[in-house]
Amino acid sequence: MTTPERPEVPEPVGFVVGAGLLARRTLDAALSAGFPVRVVVLEGFGDPADYADQPHITCRLGAAGRMLGWLREQGVRRMVMVGRVSRPSFLALRPDAGAARLLPKIGVRAFGGDDTLLVAVARVLREEGFEPLGAEQFLGSLQVPPGLLAGPAPDATAQADIRRGVAVLASLGPADVGQGCIVQQGLVLAVEAIEGTDAMIARAGPLHREGPGGVLVKLLKPGQDRRFDLPTVGPDTITAAAAAGLRGIAIEARGGLLVDREESCRRAAAAGLFLLAIEPAALNFDAMTGEV
User: Fold this and answer.
1) pLDDT tens-digit series, residues 40-82
2) Are 208 and 236 in contact (CB under 8 A)?
3) Domain chopping of the chain, boundaries
4) In the predicted model, is pLDDT for residue 109 greater than 70?
5) Which among 244, 192, 264, 272 is positioned nearest to 22, based on CA atoms?
6) What kind of architecture, by CATH, is found in domain 13-137?
7) What CATH number matches the domain at 143-287, 3.40.50.1980, 3.40.140.80, 3.40.50.720, 3.10.20.30?
8) How many CA atoms are closer than 13 Å to the CA of 266, on its beta-carbon side?
9) Of the candidates 183, 78, 90, which has an alpha carbon nearest to the alpha carbon of residue 137?
10) Is 180 helix (H, G, I), strand (E, B) or coil?
11) Contact residues for 178 (Cβ-Cβ < 8 A; gap 6+)
12) Confidence (pLDDT) at 154
């Protein structure tokens, strides 16, 4: 995915940001490419202090009317939604007047799964005159080709666990449940749902069996809209995986994002944990013999 074309006098790009490093990394990439930005920090998720150097407001999740109104005032037409957000129930949104007008267009059924909801939101944003952009359009450098990124090469047991994880996620994908699972010696210890990756890893820790540790597999959902919620691994993921007794992480090549690659690889190597970028449709472990 290429970076959006920048006109001679670039219009600002709007960022609606939640928690995590990825939001600020994406914003900095847009700034480096010459795009001015306007930031909506989602209350309770993003930290306004992280965006004090840019024009920003703080908005609760249900205040879509205020959010979109401010972005229009700032001349924003293109918008990126990035960062971790715990999706509230439909009733907990407390929509403002603008959001109440938009919710019927999104539909209650869209709240059944993350990808379904994001696609519905993107459709409504287009109807409101905005162009939704994906974080990956600014973050091509965070995507990695297939291969071993750090740590020891996975042995036959780990390879089998990766294959099992790929099969599990392929079967769960149509249900729009999650992007990750943890497999140990063929046993599925945990599947990612609404709690997110870090909480899933913590939950799997006490379920650890004797013998070789488990493997975290993070993949795009089948048919997922690549503009939103790409599977992401970063230094904190590595630390959490090591603490839970995992022996490796497999993330989708050219689809997932590796944040702070140097630090992530350093932590993986220090913990003796492999970090592997895979192509789920064509797993060829024999070809993954060197760092990429």
Assistant:
1) 998 888 899 999 999 999 998 778 889 899 999 999 999 998 8
2) no
3) 13-137, 143-287
4) no
5) 264
6) 3-Layer(aba) Sandwich (3.40)
7) 3.40.140.80
8) 7
9) 78
10) strand
11) 114, 172, 191, 192, 193, 194, 200
12) 95
